[in-house]
Design goal:
Elements lengths: L5 H39 L10 E2 L8 E7 L14 E6 L1 H10 L7 E14 L2 E17 L11 E5 L9 E2 L8 H8 L11 H6 L5
Antiparallel strand pairs: 1-7, 2-3, 3-4, 4-5, 5-6
The chain binds heme C.
């Protein structure tokens, strides 16, 4: 008959205890490490590209820093504004933090311009332009390696002006987008910073 001696019970208890401590140590340490790795990855890449260099439609940007809003209503632009109608502009948080320190757009900056329609023109608060539905999405990215041949190292992407938006797009020709930014905002690194009160307020005052 199999009978456990006192010593073997103690030995087995010790083995179980060691396994418990080890697995706690491994999971307890491994889980935060994996999370930190994921976080670092997320920080490094606010947007993603396909293997052939197309930009995948950005996600999560509505949680970035909302820097300002421009409205070019169709009814003030011969019925069809070139970028209709509300433009909500977002900046990736890491680049915003850098902007607060330096007043500059760091390499890797991503700016998103999300378009939405005018929904109504009257509300209990008064007459005006009230935001309707999301209609379009544009992005601009500064990257001195990936876009070393683009003027100012800025590339511009449009996912369309009506839903469903495209899932991935190639950068636009410089003549279609970059040129107007260069012509009108070159002194501020291709960005229309003056239109974004959050950026005006965030820039260091010495600037
Ligand atoms: C005729 C001039 C003009 C052209 C062409 C133009 N833009 Fe812009 N863009 C502007 C102006 C002015 C703003 C400032 C905010 C606004 O009015 O929407 C702006 C703002 C932006 C922003 C927000 C960040 C910033 O730089 O201020 C993005 C992103 C953007 N445009 C993308 C594009 C894309 C993509 C194209 C090409 C499909 C394009 N733009 C073509 C004038 C232009």
């Amino acid at each position: 008959m199999f009978r456990l001696s006192r010593t073997s019970v103690i030995a087995w208890t010790a083995v179980v205890a060691v396994i418990a401590v080890l697995s706690y140590a491994l999971t307890g340490v491994a889980v935060p490490r994996a999370a930190a790795k994921d976080k670092a990855k997320a920080k490094a890449a606010p947007v993603e590209f396909t293997a052939d260099g197309k930009l995948k439609r950005p996600v999560g940007y509505r949680k970035w820093v909302y820097v300002g809003e421009v409205v070019t209503p169709n009814d003030m632009n011969d019925g069809e504004a070139s970028f209709p109608e509300f433009h909500s502009v977002y900046m990736d948080p890491e680049s915003f933090a850098e902007y607060e320190k330096t007043g500059k757009y760091r390499d890797g900056t991503v700016l998103i311009k999300e378009l939405s329609s005018v929904g109504s023109k009257k509300a209990p608060s008064g007459n005006g332009y009230f935001q309707g539905e999301f209609t379009g999405l544009e992005a601009s990215i500064k990257d001195s390696k990936r876009f070393k041949d683009e003027p100012g190292n800025w590339a511009y992407f449009s996912f369309g002006h009506k839903y469903p938006l495209k899932a991935e797009v190639s950068k636009n020709a410089a003549a279609a987008c970059n040129q107007c930014h260069q012509d009108n905002a070159q002194k501020d690194d291709w960005v229309f910073s003056k239109d974004y009160p959050v950026l005006r307020a965030a820039a260091p005052k010495s600037k």
